[in-house]
Automatic annotation (TrEMBL):
Pfam families: CAP_GLY. This is CAP-Gly domain-containing protein. InterPro entries: CAP-Gly_dom_sf (IPR036859), CAP-Gly_domain (IPR000938). Coiled coil: none annotated. Residues 82-114 form the CAP-Gly domain. PROSITE patterns: CAP_GLY_2 (PS50245). It comes from the Eukaryota. It comes from Oopsacas minuta.
Amino acid sequence: TVAEKQPQYAIVAAKQTQPKYSLIKLMLNGKFQEFYSLKQVDDPNTLIGELILCRSKLSCDYVVGTLKVIIPVQYQYDKTIAGIEFIDPLGNSNGEFNGKRYFKTNHFCAIFLPINEVYMCYNKQTI
Protein backbone atom coordinates (compact mmCIF):
# COMPACT_ATOMS: atom_id res chain seq x y z
CA THR A 1 0.00 0.00 0.00
CA VAL A 2 0.98 3.59 -0.49
CA ALA A 3 2.22 5.50 2.55
CA GLU A 4 -0.24 7.87 4.21
CA LYS A 5 1.52 10.96 2.88
CA GLN A 6 3.41 11.56 -0.36
CA PRO A 7 7.18 11.95 0.17
CA GLN A 8 8.55 15.44 -0.31
CA TYR A 9 10.95 15.68 -3.23
CA ALA A 10 12.58 18.02 -5.73
CA ILE A 11 14.25 17.11 -9.00
CA VAL A 12 17.96 17.90 -8.90
CA ALA A 13 19.22 16.63 -12.25
CA ALA A 14 18.19 14.37 -15.09
CA LYS A 15 20.42 12.64 -17.61
CA GLN A 16 18.66 12.44 -20.96
CA THR A 17 19.07 9.59 -23.41
CA GLN A 18 16.98 8.97 -26.49
CA PRO A 19 14.03 9.15 -26.29
CA LYS A 20 13.43 9.51 -22.52
CA TYR A 21 15.42 10.16 -19.37
CA SER A 22 17.26 7.09 -18.05
CA LEU A 23 18.38 8.60 -14.73
CA ILE A 24 16.77 11.20 -12.48
CA LYS A 25 18.45 12.46 -9.31
CA LEU A 26 16.26 14.05 -6.70
CA MET A 27 16.16 15.20 -3.15
CA LEU A 28 13.61 12.96 -1.42
CA ASN A 29 12.80 13.52 2.25
CA GLY A 30 16.10 15.39 2.64
CA LYS A 31 18.27 12.71 0.99
CA PHE A 32 19.63 12.45 -2.55
CA GLN A 33 18.17 9.51 -4.47
CA GLU A 34 18.79 8.17 -7.96
CA PHE A 35 15.87 6.83 -9.98
CA TYR A 36 16.46 4.67 -13.07
CA SER A 37 14.03 3.79 -15.85
CA LEU A 38 12.15 0.51 -15.32
CA LYS A 39 13.12 -0.31 -18.92
CA GLN A 40 16.64 -0.98 -17.56
CA VAL A 41 15.37 -3.61 -15.07
CA ASP A 42 15.60 -7.27 -16.13
CA ASP A 43 12.33 -8.21 -14.41
CA PRO A 44 10.19 -5.20 -13.41
CA ASN A 45 7.69 -7.59 -11.75
CA THR A 46 10.15 -7.87 -8.84
CA LEU A 47 9.43 -4.20 -8.04
CA ILE A 48 5.66 -4.59 -7.53
CA GLY A 49 4.74 -2.74 -4.33
CA GLU A 50 7.81 -0.46 -4.42
CA LEU A 51 7.74 3.34 -4.54
CA ILE A 52 8.42 4.63 -8.03
CA LEU A 53 8.60 7.99 -9.78
CA CYS A 54 6.62 9.05 -12.86
CA ARG A 55 5.25 12.17 -14.52
CA SER A 56 1.63 13.01 -13.71
CA LYS A 57 -0.58 13.42 -16.79
CA LEU A 58 -2.57 16.10 -14.97
CA SER A 59 0.17 18.41 -13.70
CA CYS A 60 3.17 17.23 -15.80
CA ASP A 61 5.19 17.21 -12.55
CA TYR A 62 7.08 14.17 -11.30
CA VAL A 63 5.16 12.33 -8.59
CA VAL A 64 5.84 9.34 -6.35
CA GLY A 65 3.47 6.37 -6.41
CA THR A 66 3.38 2.62 -5.80
CA LEU A 67 3.99 0.17 -8.64
CA LYS A 68 0.94 -2.14 -8.70
CA VAL A 69 1.17 -4.16 -11.93
CA ILE A 70 3.30 -4.77 -15.06
CA ILE A 71 1.29 -5.51 -18.23
CA PRO A 72 2.76 -6.80 -21.50
CA VAL A 73 0.70 -5.26 -24.31
CA GLN A 74 0.25 -7.74 -27.16
CA TYR A 75 -0.99 -5.42 -29.88
CA GLN A 76 1.91 -2.95 -29.63
CA TYR A 77 5.44 -4.01 -30.50
CA ASP A 78 7.83 -3.99 -27.51
CA LYS A 79 5.42 -2.21 -25.17
CA THR A 80 5.16 -3.00 -21.49
CA ILE A 81 2.85 -0.92 -19.32
CA ALA A 82 3.23 -0.13 -15.61
CA GLY A 83 0.17 0.44 -13.43
CA ILE A 84 0.82 2.97 -10.65
CA GLU A 85 -1.32 3.95 -7.64
CA PHE A 86 -1.28 7.38 -5.98
CA ILE A 87 -2.74 8.55 -2.66
CA ASP A 88 -4.09 11.74 -4.20
CA PRO A 89 -6.02 12.07 -7.50
CA LEU A 90 -2.98 12.61 -9.73
CA GLY A 91 -3.79 10.07 -12.43
CA ASN A 92 -6.49 9.34 -14.98
CA SER A 93 -7.72 5.87 -13.92
CA ASN A 94 -9.16 3.85 -11.05
CA GLY A 95 -7.04 0.75 -11.73
CA GLU A 96 -8.71 -0.16 -15.02
CA PHE A 97 -6.75 -0.27 -18.31
CA ASN A 98 -8.25 -0.97 -21.76
CA GLY A 99 -11.49 -2.19 -20.18
CA LYS A 100 -9.84 -4.64 -17.76
CA ARG A 101 -9.47 -4.09 -14.00
CA TYR A 102 -5.92 -4.75 -12.75
CA PHE A 103 -6.31 -3.28 -9.25
CA LYS A 104 -8.88 -1.23 -7.35
CA THR A 105 -8.33 2.31 -6.14
CA ASN A 106 -10.21 5.61 -5.99
CA HIS A 107 -11.08 7.49 -9.18
CA PHE A 108 -8.09 9.33 -10.68
CA CYS A 109 -5.68 7.71 -8.20
CA ALA A 110 -4.02 5.47 -10.80
CA ILE A 111 -2.18 5.81 -14.07
CA PHE A 112 -0.87 3.37 -16.68
CA LEU A 113 2.36 4.34 -18.46
CA PRO A 114 4.99 2.67 -20.66
CA ILE A 115 7.79 1.38 -18.42
CA ASN A 116 10.33 3.72 -20.04
CA GLU A 117 8.38 6.59 -18.40
CA VAL A 118 8.54 5.04 -14.91
CA TYR A 119 11.58 5.23 -12.63
CA MET A 120 12.63 3.06 -9.70
CA CYS A 121 14.76 4.21 -6.80
CA TYR A 122 18.30 2.84 -7.07
CA ASN A 123 18.97 3.07 -3.32
CA LYS A 124 15.47 2.43 -1.94
CA GLN A 125 16.53 1.52 1.61
CA THR A 126 17.35 5.19 2.33
CA ILE A 127 13.86 6.51 1.50
